[in-house]
Design goal:
538 residues, 5-stranded parallel beta sheet, 51% helix, disordered N terminus
Length: 538
Amino acid sequence: MSDAAVRGRCRGTRVSEPRVLSLPTAMPDIARAARDGGPESAWYEGAPRDASAWRERASRLRSDGRWARVLGPAIEARGAAADRLARAGEGGVVVTTGQQPGLFGGPIYTWSKALSAIALADAIEESSGIPTVPVYWAATYDADYAESSVTHVALGDRVVTLSSPPAAIEGRGMRDTPLGDVRGAMQTLADAAGAAAAPHVLDDVRRAYAPDQTVGGAFVTLLRAILEPLGMPVLDAGHPAVQAASRPALAHALADAAPVDAALRSRSAALAEAGYEPQVAHVDRLSLVFAAGEGERRRLPIGAALGDAQGALEPNVLLRPDVERAILPTVAYVAGPAEQAYFAQSTAVADALGMARPLAVPRWSGVIVEPHVQRILDRYGLDVDALRDPHAVLGRLVRERVPAEIASALVRYRQALEAAASELDAALEQTAPPLVDRAVAEGTRRNIAHRLDRLERRVAAATKRRETELTRHIGIARASLFPFDRLQERVLNLMPLLARHGLPLLDAISARAREHVAGLGLAPAGQAAYSHDAGGGR
């Protein structure tokens, strides 16, 4: 059956909209233990537990708005994002989240983090009355081209990797790295979108990923096209305005690199003693500050003087949350699991520098079940979780499709074998001395049973070859839900899904994110704390 036919009708329940399912909150063990009041809580800034505590935190962090004017050139907000930024710039606070650039916007969690931050900002503003703006920290100074240059899409029963051409110069930040020719990857992205109900999404991608763009610039442009109408400004963290605002904090971190290093060593030892592997490995003799100049980015050694740094100063991953907290009135950072883990180290850096500790809260985590995938699930009586192990579900479904006569004959064959073996055992026990060792008889039984197992596997394999439609359907569902045997949100690009389903998909994700935020102690009056799915009336 063709992809179009699968998307059209799979002899199951008609479904016209995607379902969005919430997964258990993605938290590493260390962050969960800290949240639950374990000794690990000493390594984290404590999160408010109810609306009044969030209101108190927001009131304490309100600023005079200078940050909004200073960082304005790096934000360039328009429309709804500009309006919300202006309100928060007058005595308000910020909820942040962020990510390094990813090709065509990167994996789905790039966007679920953003929608989680919007939901949290909405809830804080609603409960406190304090203007709160969600801001996306686009880490365009990041130099990991290998990660920034790839993304993945589902095409039928395959997961296809899209990539940019190799970087001409290694080690540059993504804001300064030319994008290269991505027309081939763009065409595959459009192929994955199929018949787009919202073709403007692909138009946004094409405009963002123009030939003259940089990797970081294209990422920021796409984020702004999609997030600004939702009221979320996007901050280009590699912009000179951010570099200038961050320089005092970075200079402080460079000057005190030795005590920071000692604090990190101590925290790493404490983590190891408690049974945790530090999320970010320690690097001897190097500070947490990078110097970016003359087209390259290098990490400065401990003991380097500020005058030794040519060009702009930039933070490494452990220093970034502390610098962000220093230049923004950030009430909370919406973090993925790995980020939550390394915040246990970032707080050690903040303490060593006498800076405010950043607060990390978990993002929403979920899965999008598209209509054509739901029809496959309905046809074979499966739920999403059944697809985690493709071999188990496919094996079961294939066994169910073995012709009844053959299946019953194989059952009788095995029953007859066991009955005959038991009869032989009983007969051998009545002879003295035994005519043959019972172990010989048992070995014969096992040998025949093994051959019978092989026969059953051959029957199943032959049935599987005949059931090409079943195999393909399970492949299609797996490619969508568990690509590369991983969670969908960590692999697949959102743009093909968004092009197929338009803004209702973002609305459905936002609804789940609001329910997630309710679990952080910010449920509006009368709102249920949790709901498992949205979209498609399911």
